[in-house]
Structure prediction request, 509 residues.
Amino acid sequence: MGRRIRWLGMVMLLCFALVIVQLANIQFRQADALANSPYNPRVAAQKFDNRRGTITAAGGAVLAKSVKINSSSSEYNYQREYPQGPLFAGITGYDSPFYGTSGIEYQYNQYLKLHPQAPQNFSQLLFDKPPSEPDNVSLTVDPVLQQAATNALDAVPSANKDGAVVVLNAATGAVLALASNPTFDPNSLSDPNVSTEEAYHATTAVGVDDKEGFDGLTPVATQERFFPGSTFKVVTTTAVYNLAPSLINYYFPYAVSISFPDSNKTLSNDGFTACGGTMATMLPQSCDPGYGELGIKVGSVNLTKEAELFGYDVYGSKDQTVPGIDLPFVVPSTITALSPTAQADLAYSAIGQLNDQATPLQNALDAAGIANGGVIMTPHLMAQITNSQGAVVETYHPTPMSTVATPSETSAITKLMQGVAIDGTAAGIFPATWHIAVKTGTAQVQAPTGPEQTDDWMIGFLPATATTPPVAIAVVVPYQAFSLTGAQIAGPIVKQVMQAYLGETGTQG
Prediction:
């Protein structure tokens, strides 16, 4: 009898031990999972209390907010509204009950959604937990520049108006404008009371590809790549100064074209005119055969290495390099690993026409790196996050991304880029008082439908001769007529956006 009692006691103790283990498991190990489980009634109820924090631009303009739904027929308490409509859609993204989040709504969802707040007093610390509240996200984007960029894209004289404009504070990496065309109205996706079918139709209405193959839900500025054309000559030039300085004074004899021992290709200058000289002459005039020959002499190792310093990914490598901007789904710019013996490929890559592809964001970083003395700052959109009480939760601190050259080297490159605006391919576009440094690009491409066309680029920065932080810009307008150039199409856009910047800051122009 005593033995049975002892066994029963041991079993009871074991059961108590298992209960204690399970309680500890629930209280500590599984606490977060259970608290956030969709089967938790509190979480299920919170789905309908869908209040989110506010997203604002620099200066306080509201880009996204949650508005109370005053309807007894709605299961939800709030609806997301985007007061600026399509203007900032490529930045804010959307918050949809059917399709989730994108853009800043996705990137900072953990802050924008309802979440537990830190205790504000001793009572909340011990007894009453503070209610869940969302945080608010302030961005670096400038509404004046964003509007100017959008207006300039809409004013492109051709029927094909797709493209992108990226404007950066070169000294900090702050994104001042990030405009893409086509765009979409995020309000069409935010109604929580439409049926799934209605939401689907709303999406397809704004997300279907246009004739050029772009759709508004995929921002051109960060999720599309193009041949950079002659804007890539800035990278090639930097490779000379940084990695092959013996070629700084290399002289290319004037010629219309060059040929290669390993290919039946030839590389001719635009318009089949003769060009040549040193980089001081060839960069402003954008001499294709001269820069092709220069690229061969720089070599595949140096050209690839310099492209990597700027942020390009060597195509096919394990770790793709994506600029550390705080947006989801940004695609990397690429450069194919080049063979030292493939001279034709190397020459064409040196002028941005064959083995390299760049996003508008990447090309803006290329310009910013030269503008900022060789240091590319990590691009960012978030300026500050505050809680419902106005207290600062997080502040962005500028962070270097990479160093592409020394200040003295980039100073020399800046003078070459100024030459582009003074007496080069962009001559006559900008007032001399702007002291702007630019590079044009006209990449020959095969359009999705129709004859061969051009992707028209311009990158640059101003002021190029001042101590004030420079502003860098990249513009691309793809699939333009074969007869058009980056100076003709992208140049006026750069001018309009920079004019807005100079007017806003009251500096010059």
